[in-house]
Design a protein that fits this description.
CATH architecture: 3-Layer(aba) Sandwich
Number of domains: 1
CATH topology: Cytidine Deaminase, domain 2
Order of helices and strands: EHEEEEEEHEHHHEEEEEE
Shape: globular
Bound molecules: zinc ion
CATH superfamily: Cytidine Deaminase, domain 2
Helix content: 10-25%
Distance between the termini: 13 Å
Length: 218
């Protein structure tokens, strides 16, 4: 039995992955001109509960949104909390049964831009995981009072010639790798659990397992 289960609804799977794909495939206006292969960002909404045996905490991600006011680039996404406040007010009015859980963003990689030759090279370099600035951002959000408990990162990668790889769990099942439309996609979850002390929760050292029925990972 895993200690932390992150359950991704079909809606969240659809929104997170299609947002990451749109930012990857289509040209977006950025400070550096119009380009594709940019990052995207949004918020996660849901609730935490115990499993039926009371052994594991289940973080149910019910809804997600994509923030359109962010500044995107190929290796970062910058946001402020106005979008969060706007969406939290809306959630409080229409869906008071769910609350803020955290956020997601994407990591775009390609042979063309990043000289990453294979999926294995990307995995060896841990590019599908949170970067140090990603962890710093969570700490800053918690410092600002956000009840941040779950972070998702969707990494999208393409290379010249697709090699078929089976759907797989990585990182003790906190990450799912699957293929779609000539692309390889990693979906990785982090959990900050326990009681908030001075506003901060610790990133859990317990086992985190991602549950995502849409890709058959249950
Ligand atoms: Zn990142």
């Amino acid at each position: 039995m895993k200690d932390c289960l992150v359950s991704v609804s079909d809606h969240v799977f659809f929104n997170v992955v299609t947002s990451a794909l749109e930012a990857y495939k289509l040209a977006h206006v950025t400070d550096g001109g119009s380009c594709s292969h940019v990052e995207t960002f949004g918020h996660l909404w849901g609730y935490a509960t115990k499993d039926v045996l009371g052994l594991a905490t289940v973080y149910r991600l019910v809804w997600s949104d994509t923030s359109t006011a962010v500044k995107r680039s190929k290796d970062s996404v910058t946001f402020d909390d106005e979008a969060y406040q706007l969406k939290e007010r809306f959630i409080d009015s229409f869906f008071p049964e769910v609350s803020y859980m955290g956020d997601f963003h994407s990591h775009p990689y390609s042979l063309e831009d990043d000289k990453i030759k294979t999926e294995l090279e990307l995995e060896r370099k841990k590019l599908y995981q949170f970067s140090k600035p990603d962890f710093d951002s969570v700490r800053q959000l918690q410092n600002d009072g956000a009840n941040y408990r779950v972070g998702l990162v969707a990494t999208v990668y393409s290379r010249d010639k697709k090699v078929n790889r089976s759907t797989a769990w990585l990182d003790d099942q906190s990450c799912l790798r699957f293929q779609y439309d000539e692309l390889t996609i990693w979906l990785k979850a982090y959990v900050w659990s326990g009681d908030a002390i001075d506003g901060f929760r610790r990133k859990t050292d317990k086992m985190v397992r991602l549950i995502c029925p849409a890709v058959g990972a249950v």
